[in-house]
Design brief:
about 120 residues; alpha/beta; 4 helices; 4 strands
């Protein structure tokens, strides 16, 4: 975790505007949860925008996902952007439905932030 925090501090000090985290359940090395990683590094981000480059609604229920992302957005006062994955997986109908359902749930769960939800 220390190396992740150092990476974010270095990016901030170099003037980088965004910091992003992917969402992997299985990977060839340990990988922490993307939204959790963003919450962890938040104190070191300054005014950087936080983003999920890949969010996997096929593997996460839309309501808890919406709640977690909405909560994450409140912490830095509206600097979170959500990127989606699922449509690139061969255009499977189940993936398209999961992405659409998750996006709709995130848009409905209003915690008072300004969460930007990609399409």
């Amino acid at each position: 975790m220390a190396s992740l925090l150092a990476y974010v501090r270095a990016a901030r000090d170099l003037g980088v505007d965004w910091i992003a985290a992917n969402d992997h359940f299985v990977f060839h090395r340990p990988w922490i949860d993307g939204p959790s990683a963003l919450a962890m590094v938040l104190p070191e981000t300054g005014g950087m925008t936080l983003a999920t480059t890949i969010t996997l609604p096929v593997l996460r229920h839309p309501v808890p996902l919406a709640k977690a992302l909405g909560t994450l957005d409140l912490l830095p006062e509206g600097r979170v952007v959500v990127g989606w994955a699922g449509l690139a997986s061969g255009g499977l109908p189940r993936a398209r439905r999961a992405v659409g359902g998750a996006m709709a749930a995130v848009r409905r769960v209003d915690l008072g932030g300004t969460l930007v939800v990609g399409s």
